[in-house]
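Hi both,

Apologies for the delay on this - the queue was longer than expected. I finally got the S-adenosylmethionine-bound model through. Below you'll find the protein sequence and the ligand SMILES exactly as submitted, and right after that the C-alpha cells for the full complex including the ligand.
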Amino acid sequence: MGRTQRHRQRRNLQTPTPTSTTLDNALHVLYGQLHALGWRNETRLSALTFPQTGRGLCSKTKSFQADDELIRLPASCLISIATLEADEGFKQLFNRNLFDKDARISFQALVACYLMYQRHLYECTKDSPWSAYLDTLPSSYTTPYFCAINELQCLPDALLERTVAQNRQIREYYQVLKTLLGSQHCESCGNRYCEDIWALAEYKIAYFTVNTRSVYLDARQLKQSNKSHFQPLLNDSSNLALAPFLDLFNHSDSVRTTAQLYSKSQEYVLTLEAFTKPILKPYEQLYISYGALPNLKLITEYGFYLEHNAHDYFEFSLQDIERLIAHNKELAAQSYHRNIFKFIREHNLMDQMFVHIQDGCSHNLRVVLHLIFKQQAYFPNVLNQIAFGDVEQFDNVQPELSYLLAYKVNEYQGFVNALQQQPQLTESGTVALGYLIECLRYLRDFEQAHS
Ligand SMILES: C[S@@+](CC[C@H](N)C(=O)[O-])C[C@H]1O[C@@H](n2cnc3c(N)ncnc32)[C@H](O)[C@@H]1O
C-alpha cells in the first residue's frame, strides 16, 4: 500500500460520514419540531455517523473547550413526567381506581408504555407530537438481553444474571400494564391496546429505548401541576426523561459532563466540564459521560463496551472461588470449614470482590481469599477480627489470586471459543463476543502488572 493510500485509509477511519437519508429526513423534521418548541441549537450540533461509535454528534463550525455548554434544550422538548401528566388521552387509559399498591411499576416502565402509545397514535392517525422523534429511534438494541438462545448459552453468569433479572422485571411490568389497561381500546382503530396492539416484543424494545437513552433530571424542577395522576402507580421517582436529539450523544470515559434542569428558565443544559484534550475542533465527535461505569454495566444496560475503559474492574463471585476449588487439584485436596463460607455470606464479604488494574485486588477479595485459603481457625470471633481488623495481618494471597485469574481466563476463553464457533451471531452476540475478549485482555494485563 502506498503512502497516499495509507494516509487516505487512516483519514477514512476517523472521518465521520453523513447519516442515512431516512435518518437525515427524520432529523430534519425533528430540528423543525424542536425549533418550534424553542430550541435554538446555539452550539450548531449536527448528527453524523462516526467510524468507532456509529451515530453521534459534533459541531460542524464550533470548537469546544472545558466549561463550554454542549446543548441547551427547553424542558418542553423532553418527554418527562410533565409530558405524561399533561397528555389527557394517555392518562385516560389509566383508571386510578384500579391502581394496586402491590403492583406498581417504575417510571421507566411507564415511559416505555408512553412510547408505544405515541407510536400507535402515529401509525394509526399520523398525528403524534413525537412523530419525528420516534423516527430517529433505533429499532433494535445490542444488549445481551437480545442475544439468541444459542448465544446466551455461551455467556458467563455475570451477564446472564443481569439479563435474567431484566427479563423478569420487564415481564412483570408488562403484566401490570396488561391488567391495568384490560380491554381499553384505541379510539381510532378500535383495537385493544394490550391484546391486539402492544405485543410483549414491542414493549421490550420500548423498555430498552428508555434504558439506553434516558437522561437523569430532578423532576422537582419541572413546572407542572401539583395534581399527579400517575404517582400512586409508580414505585420510584420520576427523575428521568427522554431528550430528543440530545440523546444522540455517545459516551466516553475521558470526559466529564454535567446536566442540569434549571427551574427558572425551564431549560435542560449539558456542560462539558473536562476532557483530555485542550480543545475539540469542528467535526470531532462530542461525547458526554453516562457515569463512571465499568464495561459490565455498559454492555448490560447500554449494549456496548469501551476498550481500556478507565472505569473498568473485574468482579468475582463466591461461586467462582467454589468452582476454582473444585477444578484445582491442589486446592481441592485441602479441607475447608463450612463456617468460613457461612461467615462470608452472613457478612456479605462476597460483595465487591474485584480486581482493578491500577488499584490491585479489592479489600473484600483479599479478605475472602485469606479466610478460605489461609485461615485455620473457624470461630466467629477470630474471623471477625480478621475480616474487620487490620489489613496488615493478611497472609499473602497472591498464589490463590493467580489461580483465580487463571481459572477465569480459562472460563472466558471457553465462552469466546463457543461464541466463535456459532454459525452466525446477532448484533448482540457480536458485541458480547467483543466484550468477553476485552475481559480476557483486562485479566491478562492485570496478572502481568501484579504478579
Ligand atoms: C444515548 S444513545 C447515543 C446515540 C446512539 N449512538 C444512537 O445512534 O442513537 C446510547 C447508545 O449509543 C451507543 N453508544 C454510546 N456510546 C458509545 C460508545 N462510546 N461506543 C459505542 N457505542 C456507543 C450505545 O448503543 C448506547 O446504547
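Main takeaway for now: The chain has three domains: 3-77+245-302, 81-241, 314-450.

I'll put the files on the shared drive as well.

H.
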